[in-house]
């Protein structure tokens, strides 16, 4: 059966080939397959990303409207972080089971707060009746000196990375370092906690503070926009960890046509997982749980110190977790694009969340 990614590749990537040579195709700088599309409009660039959240799939059916709005918005903004781009506009396609005004007023207030916080304007959408589904389309621009999220650092200038000054999944090169921001496993841990799916395997002692942290990590994941912008011109490739670390690493590896070697022992574990006695499960959550919304990126070795410095400026922990290799060196030996090393680390059967 075709996976979500095979469906996209087989049925919805037809404009990527540029076979028709149309004006619209030639102005597509980044098309299907990255965290956002990048489109040339006149002499400027526009970035576009869409995300849908379905009740009962992406959030529990009884989730609070305040939480649904913040999760839907932040998850979408995370794709902009992965492009190192600046979000500016938003459309909302909302499908509602009924016109519950109490629900709507809470959802709207939360969305308005998010828009104000991240500087985006809601400029359109569609409202329909059906099972609760929230679709956001975020539009924005590449980082420039004017919009730089790190332009409080006077030494920061936007380098000419590619024609559009955005991060892509396809630029990793042999010899590069592999980094990840923040910590891993919180998305999966939060999902377990929120769905109360405390099977014997998954229940674990956590403090009230950790409970709050996990709730926030799930319903208001922090889009790493400042870090993403700061990485433009430094990182050779980037993606946000939404499907799961291994699955997202594979997207980078296949689109960059490289091998990635990850060191399991170096992976930054979210503190709430530390008290989990089932270490196999903790590792599984970090490797394939998904929903962490951290940035996974590659950097030329010579720029190691730049990452250390910019992480400090932005105030986000970044951890070196692996290295990029030429596939010619490895293919014959392993036959896979992402290698996991470290003491007792093995890949779980499911590498990440798949809809199909
Ligand atoms: P992300 O997890 O970063 O949001 P997805 O895994 O949802 O990315 O999608 C991967 C790529 O496929 C993205 O470039 C997205 O725009 C594209 N895509 C997904 N579904 C479709 C579709 N139905 N038609 C065209 N492009 C799609
Ligand atoms: Mg993404």
CATH architecture of the largest domain: Alpha-Beta Complex
Give me the secondary-structure category: alpha+beta
Oligomer state of the chains in this structure: single chain
CATH class type of the largest domain: Alpha Beta
Report the count of strand segments.
12
Rounded radius of gyration (Å): 20 Å
Strand order of the largest sheet: 1-2-3-6-4-5
> What name does the CATH topology of the largest domain carry?
Phosphoribosyl-aminoimidazole Synthetase, Chain A, domain 2
Strand residue percentage: 15-25%
What's the helix count? 11
Query: What bound compounds does this protein have?
Result: adenosine-5'-diphosphate, magnesium ion
Order of helices and strands: HHEEEHEHEEEHHHEHEHEHEHE
**Global geometry:** globular
Q: Outline the biggest β-sheet.
A: 6 strands, mixed
The domain count comes to 3
List the uncertain runs: none
Classify the helix fraction into a percent range. 25-40%
State the end-to-end distance.
8 Å
Give the topology.
Elements: H1 4-11, H2 23-26, E1 28-30, E2 37-41, E3 44-54, H3 65-83, E4 85-96, H4 101-118, E5 121-129, E6 133-142, E7 177-181, H5 186-194, H6 208-219, H7 225-231, E8 237-240, H8 245-256, E9 259-263, H9 279-288, E10 295-299, H10 304-314, E11 318-325, H11 327-334, E12 338-341
Parallel strand pairs: 4-5, 9-12
Antiparallel strand pairs: 1-2, 2-3, 3-6, 4-6, 7-10, 7-11, 8-10, 9-11
Helix pairs in contact: 3-4, 3-7, 5-6, 5-9, 7-10
The structure holds adenosine-5'-diphosphate and magnesium ion.
């Amino acid at each position: 059966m075709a996976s979500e990614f095979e469906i996209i590749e087989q049925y919805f990537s037809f404009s990527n080939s540029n076979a028709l040579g149309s004006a619209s195709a030639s102005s597509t700088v980044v098309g299907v397959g990255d965290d956002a599309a990048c489109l040339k409009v006149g002499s400027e660039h526009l970035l576009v990303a869409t995300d849908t959240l379905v009740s009962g799939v992406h959030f529990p059916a009884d989730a609070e409207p305040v939480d649904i709005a913040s999760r839907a918005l932040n998850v979408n903004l995370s794709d902009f972080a992965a492009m190192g781009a600046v979000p500016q506009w938003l459309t909302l396609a909302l499908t509602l089971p009924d016109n519950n005004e109490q629900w709507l007023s809470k959802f709207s207030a939360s969305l308005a707060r998010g828009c104000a916080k991240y500087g985006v304007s809601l400029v359109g959408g569609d409202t329909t009746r059906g099972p609760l589904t929230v679709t956001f389309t975020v539009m924005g621009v590449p980082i420039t000196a004017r919009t730089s999220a790190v332009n409080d650092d006077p030494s920061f200038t936007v380098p000419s990375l590619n024609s559009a000054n955005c991060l892509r999944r396809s630029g990793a090169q042999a010899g590069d370092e592999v980094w990840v921001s923040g910590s891993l496993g919180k998305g999966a841990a939060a999902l377990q906690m929120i769905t109360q799916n405390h099977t014997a395997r998954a229940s674990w002692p956590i403090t009230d503070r950790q409970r709050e942290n996990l709730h926030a990590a799930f319903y208001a994941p922090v889009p790493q926009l400042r870090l993403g912008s700061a990485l433009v011109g430094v990182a050779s490739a980037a993606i946000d960890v939404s499907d799961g670390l291994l699955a997202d690493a594979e997207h980078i590896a296949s689109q960059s046509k490289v091998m990635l070697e990850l060191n399991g022992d170096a992976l930054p574990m979210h503190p709430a997982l530390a008290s989990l006695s089932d270490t196999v499960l903790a590792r599984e959550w970090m490797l394939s749980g998904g929903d962490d919304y951290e940035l996974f990126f590659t950097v030329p070795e010579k720029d190691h110190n730049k990452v250390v410095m910019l992480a400090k400026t932005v105030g986000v922990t970044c951890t070196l977790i692996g290295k990029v290799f030429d596939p010619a060196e490895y293919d014959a030996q392993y036959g896979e694009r992402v290698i996991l090393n470290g003491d007792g680390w093995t890949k779980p059967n499911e590498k990440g969340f798949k809809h199909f």
